[in-house]
Amino acid sequence: MYFKHDSWDEFYKNPFGAAEIGKEVTFRVRSNETMNIMLHTNFRDHDNYYPMIQSPEDPEVFEVTIPMPASTGLLWYDFHFDAFNSHYIYGAPPDGFGGEGQVNLFSDQSYQITVYSPERKIPEWFKEGVIYQIFPDRFNHGDREDFTPVYPKHTILHTNWTDKPHYFRKPDGSIDYYDFFGGNLQGIIDKLDYLEDLGISIIYLNPIFQSCSNHKYDTADYKKIAPEFGNLEIFEELCQEAKKRGIRIILDGVFNHTGDNSRYFNKYNVYPEVGAYQDKQSPYYSWYNFINHPDEYESWWGIKSMPSTNKNNDNLRHFIFSGDNSIIRYWIKKGASGWRLDVADELTDDFIVGIKEALLTEDPDSILIGEVWEDASNKVSYGKLRDYLLGRELDSVMNYPFRLCMLDFFKGYRNSDQVMRQLMSLYEHYPRENFMSNMNLIGSHDRRRILTALANIPTNIELSEIERENFSLTVEDYYLAKKRLMLLMLIQMTFPGVPSIYYGDETGAQGFEDPYNRATLNWENIDQEIHDWYKELIHLRNKSDVLRKGDFKPVFGPDDIFAFTRTYKDKTYLIAVNRNPYNAQSFNYPIEGKGGRNLFTGDLKTLDQINVSPFGYVLFEILNDEKDLDV
Fold first, then answer.
1. 43 - beta bridge partners?
2. Coil, helix or strand at residue 403
3. Domain residue ranges of the chain, discontinuous segments joined by +
4. pLDDT band (50, 70, 90) for residue 459
5. Which of 183, 242, 289, 377 could form a disulfide with 298, with the two C-beta atoms 3.0–4.6 Å apart?
6. What is the mean pLDDT of residues 100-122?
7. Average pLDDT of the chain, as a whole number
8. What is the C-alpha end-to-end distance of the chain, expressed in Å?
9. Poorest-pLDDT segment among 91-95, 241-245, 585-589
């Protein structure tokens, strides 16, 4: 018995990937069994069966064309048929990633189609940009004499910029003192020329609003810049000076919770207003979820210093997004170009939609990014399937699956086929606009530094805090991690989506998880080779329509080779890297083209077989015209 469907092949499913509401999709299978082949779909728990018609051109091809639902959601499909007096179901492979499936006697895994509404076209400045993420206290300091924390009794200012960050804890493990280094908005302004030279077009700032911590994820006042970072005038100057250099500013919005030491909760009587903790009559009381006022309340992951907000409360919604001068709109008016939503899983779907509507009302060219760690098209949070990418919600998500795939590949945990299958599933599941807007990060403030992660160090290594604080890669480990990083950078800058650089990764920064991944950028100790490679790749991407806009197609080869093509109009680029440090790898590239031009050197090469040296790479423009190739 022969039966085949491949969701990644447009012959079998056209168009590929996510589908617009109401648009038609054609499904095909190949089979030497002709009895009662049915397409089965399930949309919002409603089943439909469609008879598949035998093709007059090919008796082994069966097809049916159906319209997608008129509303958004996930449509699941598989195929039912009878053979040998039994009923069979053909569905997706066991990993659920799509492609060529398998036959079962029962429904095991269905294919996913994301049915979305094309509400907007995501602005080109974002889709074609390069992001640089900054942890403001640790990037660069301007005038340190202006350092004026709101809570000086719980603040330590390092006198040495290159000190290691440290948590000063109470016996119960909670934070007693937050250490600061004096980085601020003026320091960012002072380095805008550096970022422009690097090729950056978007700055994503970790939170900059008033709070007692150095990380600012415990907001105290949404309308005030943290005084140790600057003030409103300096923020506006930052936005204006960045804009002159073609750089946009994106802010970090922390709306799932506030700080307990905030204007709204006011647990420690710091603010003149009556906070929710102090009195049930406070105008902010309904913002929170008290179990037993005042000391029992819902908080983020049980951390009492971060009381959770009530996302269904109308007063909170008016303050955050629905009011004419809401927080979302206020900071867009002051010069920001978008928001990144912290812990988007904790926000309700309609809360996110409300933010998006306010954002676009204020500036139709703005952008909304969500912190989502998994496949955002089918993410289930608190038992509910989330609607993140259906047209009215997020424009982009932090592509942590990309980071995980790349680490697994370079450290040998998964081969290229396994990694590519997961990335192809995102390509298949996300609407194209969202996939091309994926925030492709390899480093962030929530994960160990990428150099440290790429070294041969176990993820669960057991070290004391002192050992972690003082840890540094050996010469051998650094060499290995650096070689891997330079190959990963090539993938990151050529893969579909928006590359995101965590400050300092371009200089060779090291460090385990928080707080050591949040050390200051040592401007006197830059690995120039890494920096120059970043710069070269960013500029290559910035000037290439193919790398910024091109279609994506995987190229499957040996386990150690990660390869793909990007195609835009009449140009195709082939990208391949070899993770093997000892052996060259070869693979056949299935094209009719005559050869390729090396995009770095301009050299011409025949491409009947691609050879990639140990820890090597290729980046070719495919040439199909004999007159273009003279070798």
1. 46, 75
2. helix
3. 3-116, 124-256+309-542, 257-308, 546-628
4. confident
5. 289
6. 90
7. 94
8. 48
9. 585-589
Q: How far is CA 292 from the centre of its chain?
A: 38
Pairing of strands 585-587, 571-578: unpaired
Distance of CA 6 to the CA centre of its chain: 27
What order of strands is seen across the sheet that includes strand 168-169? 155-157, 175-180, 168-169
Q: Residue 482 CB: number of other CB atoms within 10 A?
A: 19
Backbone angles phi, psi at 198, to 5 degrees: -70, -25
What's the pLDDT score for residue 628? 52
Contacts of 23 (CB under 8 A, 6+ apart): 15, 67, 68
Q: CATH class for domain 124-256+309-542?
A: alpha beta
- 78 noted as active-site residue: no
Contact 442, 492 (CB under 8 A): yes
CA–CA gap between residue 631 and residue 629 (Å, rounded): 6
Please enumerate in sequence order all residues whose Cβ is within 8 A of that of 244, keeping only pairs 6 or more positions apart, or say none: none
* Global pTM exceeds 0.85: yes
Q: Where are the extended beta strands (E) located within 212-301?
A: 221-225, 248-253, 290-292, 296-297
Of 349, 371, 428, 621, the active-site residue reads 371
Distance CA 65, CA 85 (A): 28
**pLDDT at position 592:** 57
If 0-12 CB within 10 Å is exposed, 13-18 middle and 19+ buried, where does residue 592 land? exposed
Q: Specify the higher pLDDT residue, 567 or 593.
A: 567
Q: For 448, list phi and psi in degrees, rounded to 5.
A: -60, 155
Task: Give the model's confidence band at 524: pLDDT under 50 very low, under 70 low, under 90 confident, else very high.
Answer: very high
Fold match between 124-256+309-542 and 546-628? no
- Predicted pLDDT of residue 150: 76
- Rounded CA gap, 325 and 207, in Å? 20
Contact (CB, 8 A) for 16 and 27: no
Residue 590: band (very low, low, confident or very high) from pLDDT cuts 50, 70, 90: low
| Residue-level pLDDT at 591 | 62
Residues comprising the chain, all counted: 631
Second-level CATH architecture of 3-116: Sandwich (2.60)
Contacts of 9 (CB under 8 A, 6+ apart): none
Amino acid letter, residue 496: P
pLDDT bin (cut points 50, 70, 90) of residue 91 is very high
Quote the CA–CA distance of 184 and 353 in Å, as a whole number: 32
Q: How far is CA 345 from the centre of its chain?
A: 14
Q: Give the pair of three-digit tokens for residue 368.
A: 């909304």
User: What is the β-pairing status of strands 13-14 and 19-20?
Assistant: unpaired
Question: 235-248 burial, b if ≥16 CB within 10 A, otherwise e?
Answer: bebbbeebeeeebb
**559 tagged catalytic:** no
Half-sphere exposure in the Cβ direction for 339 (13 Å, CA): 28
* Alpha carbons 99 and 420: distance in angstroms, whole number: 11
Interval 182-211: pLDDT, tens:
999 999 999 999 999 999 999 999 999 999
The residue among 428 and 1 whose pLDDT is bigger is 428
Choose between 2 and 315: higher pLDDT. Answer: 315
Q: Which CATH architecture has domain 546-628?
A: Sandwich (2.60)
Q: For residue 27, which phi and psi values (nearest 5 degrees)? A: -115, 135
pLDDT reading at 152 higher than 90: no
Q: Which residue among 63, 218, 342, 621 is the active-site one?
A: 342
